[in-house]
Amino acid sequence: MSDSGEEKKKILVAPLNWGLGHATRCIPIINALLEHNFEPIIASDGVALELLKKEFPHLRALKLPSYNITYSKKASSFKLKLIKDSPHLLKTIKKEKKAIEAFIKTENISGIISDNRFGVRHKSVPSVFITHQLRVLSGSTTWLSSKLHQKIIMKYDECWVPDYIGTNNLSGDLGHPEGFQSSVKYLGPLSRFKKINLPTKYNLLVVLSGPEPQRTFLEKKLLEELESYSGKVCFVKGKINDDENKRENGDMTTYDYMTSNELEVAINESDLILSRSGYTSIMDYAKLGKKVFFIPTPGQFEQEYLAKKLDEEGISPCCKQKDFKIEMLSRVNDYKAFTATEYNINFKKLFHLF
Length: 354
Known about the structure:
alpha/beta; globular
């Protein structure tokens, strides 16, 4: 049977599997590709791949080699662990390049969108790198980690930064370093959510995410702290599994995992959110104009920087994981919270590359 329309161009979308943020911010891009008559192919590993398969069950999904990034138990040894893991990372990047080479032959791919996967590019196919970190914070070695990252970015045809271009932005120094010359395009914030006016159902929504073991550490701490909290709580653990997903216990409803639609509703019908300060989460809360209390992942310089930036700007308070006490939530009343902003990305123009 011959296809009457012209064949759709296939675009490989490959987010890094590190927490869920890279995968979730690719959702609006995948939806836009579908709207503009492309055929997206998903490629990742682990929970990032599982999440996208749940969101887009009808799309082709390919498995990429795993970076296996985990945190050290101690925040202070995070950088040392990354250095120790770097031979493995380099090996994975090589495997990734081989996998991409094979996909291009077998899948007839016309374009590549990599969200922070260093080996996902090909010289014969227009390749895009998505990042909000043109500057990579790593303490005293920030200059080196930024230089290495920028060197990788230069190998792509374009770099898409999901943030506003001006000084009134969300990523601060991360996405707006001085003197970096490359084909950078500022998209404006990328969020899969829409603001919906719903009656308040929960006083507090807890959204956990990020790599282990820190996700579990925070879950245990918060469940203990919440025992003395009076109010309706929705607690999303950020674990993807196929077992029973929802449990109710008094004023607390617990979910292991929520789909985009469920989370969109839960955020819109919650008065206050307690969350990690991952950049994708920040883009979501900014779009929906929410009150948030941030607890950055210990030892993750980027999340610590973003939480501190928003605290200093008077938008949302934050504290270290080890210091958190439930009473601290009342501090949000002294902050102005995010202002909901509608931002339309010109995807048609952006996809001209393909």
